[in-house]
Design goal:
Elements: H1 2-57, H2 60-63, E1 81-85, E2 98-100, E3 103-105, E4 108-110, E5 113-116, E6 122-124, E7 129-137, E8 142-149, E9 153-160, E10 162-163, E11 170-171, E12 176-179, E13 190-197, E14 200-202, E15 208-209, E16 214-215, E17 219-223, H3 227-238, H4 257-260, H5 263-269, E18 279-281, H6 288-295, H7 299-306, E19 319-321
Antiparallel strand pairs: 1-17, 2-5, 3-4, 5-13, 6-12, 7-8, 7-11, 8-9, 9-13, 10-12, 13-14, 15-16, 18-19
Length: about 325
């Protein structure tokens, strides 16, 4: 009798559990719904924050409405002013010799700088960004590359002997993008280098000091009202070298001639700056010895000017007087 009652009790409990399961599941779903809505709202806010941050960090997003692989440049409306971040740069070539300035030349406008390089020298991306065009133009740039950079600039590298990148590739500052050459409309091996904002050519000397292998500042504030005056000033300060010809020690490229030149030849290449205090921004891996060799001075002189002790260590991003 007790066994029969026990069986009935177990059967009843089991039936109650089975019948209550959907109710419990529904309750869980009902309780979970507000949580899901909160998570969805949070995800949306996070996504918006990420997009806002990317828009802030990539000014090029606000300047260019499209991505066109057909034209090397197409001028659009320039902003009245625009802050261009020049940090995290890399010089497109190690050559210090400018052979032709930005401006009128041979009855037409020369919209970039010509920098002397040797055939096969490595040409590198000036800033991080995305490769927009990789093409050949027989009567103009020859083999050329156009990169749209995160800071809003676009750079053009012309007369290359070979492309090392493809369209739509992401590149970092310093990545190899081509080899020096003399293709297209060119009278000798050199790099034709352009810097453009909204498709409008700006003097690269506003941003780059090739003789000192450095940028002109951490930032450049573009203003339409003063750009012509500042461009002329930049050419005077950082344009084509006054002396005729050039020394092989001024152009190293892939051959890395700068590493083999002695202090006397380096000092000659910097002779036009004697008596003027200039600044070098330390890159990753540099030491006082490498900076002294690069700038044609001595470690002792760097220590004296910068009040540095016996340590040879310097910090990345630090400004060193020389």
């Amino acid at each position: 009798m007790n066994l029969r009652k026990s069986i009935k009790r177990i059967t009843f409990v089991a039936l109650m559990m089975i019948s209550s399961t959907p109710i419990v599941a529904q309750d869980l779903i009902a309780r979970q719904a507000p949580v899901d809505r909160k998570v969805k709202t949070l995800d949306t806010l996070v996504l918006h924050n990420i997009q806002a941050k990317e828009s802030y960090e990539l000014p090029s997003n606000d300047l260019y409405g499209d991505w066109d692989n057909k034209y090397a440049h197409r001028a659009t409306a320039l902003p009245d002013s625009f802050n261009i971040n020049l940090r995290h740069y890399h010089m497109p070539t190690y050559s210090k010799v400018i052979t032709s300035n930005f401006g009128p030349r041979w009855g037409r406008m020369h919209k970039g700088l010509d920098i002397k390089v040797y055939l096969g020298d490595t040409i590198r991306a000036a800033f991080s960004g995305k490769v927009r065009i990789v093409k050949y133009e027989r009567n103009g740039y020859g083999n050329y590359v156009v990169i749209r950079h995160d800071n809003g600039l676009e750079t053009i590298y012309g007369h290359l002997s070979k492309h090392l990148v493809k369209e739509n590739m992401n590149v970092r500052a310093g990545d190899p993008i081509g080899l020096g050459g003399s293709t297209g409309r060119s009278t000798g091996t050199h790099l034709h280098f352009e810097t453009r904002l909204c498709g409008v050519a700006l003097n690269p000397a506003l941003f780059f000091d090739f003789r000192n292998q450095d940028v002109t500042a951490d930032n450049y504030m573009f203003r339409r009202s003063t750009i012509d005056r500042e461009s002329a000033k930049a050419t005077k300060a950082r344009g084509k070298n006054d002396q005729n010809g050039y020394k092989p020690s001024d152009v190293n490229g892939n051959r890395e001639i700068a590493q083999s030149q002695n202090k006397s030849s380096a000092a000659v290449s910097e002779s036009s700056y004697r008596g003027t205090v200039r600044y070098h921004k330390v890159e990753a891996g540099e030491t006082l010895y490498s900076i002294a060799n690069k700038r044609g001075t001595t470690v002792e002189e760097l220590r004296r000017l910068n009040h540095i002790g016996r340590s040879n260590n310097v910090k990345t991003g630090q400004l060193i007087k020389y």
